[in-house]
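During the no-cost extension, the postdoctoral fellow (Dr. R.K.) reprocessed legacy sequence entries with the updated structure-token encoder. One reprocessed record is reproduced below for audit purposes.
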Amino acid sequence: MAYSWFILLLALATTALILLVIHGTPVGQIVHDRIPDRPRRRLFVASVSFFLTFAGVRAVVYGILHQIPPFHFIEVKGRHIHHLVFGIIILLGVGYGWLCEVGTGTSGSSMLMGRLMAVLYGVGAALTLDEFALWLNLKDVYWSPEGRSSIDAVFLFGSLLASGAWGFPLLNWGKKRVRREGSKS
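Re-encoded structure tokens follow.
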């Protein structure tokens, strides 16, 4: 069970770190200035948490396979529980939360909840897509050549998240966003 606790702690630490950096540092102000609308900021936060979680999970699985303590696979009554299960549970929770408009900016939902939901979405998507080859092949092919499809899926989806957030708004690095008051078009 150390593996599951470590994945949970990794997800929580990633969440806390991203929320802290985005909320209380100059980096947060840069993100706010360069990515003006709320949906793009959520995409940005989701993409950062997605890639950090993917890297962390790959490192943990590498540690398990190379018998680096304290990591080991999760087994319940002799059955191996893959981390995509946790990813699916997180994605279902985030989807339900967004259906209830938690963190969407409507009905007075907080920006912090929006960021938390975006981070959890990135974490859940990374945990799930990291084992895309498992659902594609219906067998564990994580480090085999067939496992390459997981890497492809991660980079395709991660690129979609990143381009939605980073695409146009961050190309204007040198320009300060100027708000014109009273100007007529």
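The radius of gyration is 19 Å. Residues 2-166 form one domain. The remaining legacy entries will be reprocessed before the final report is submitted.
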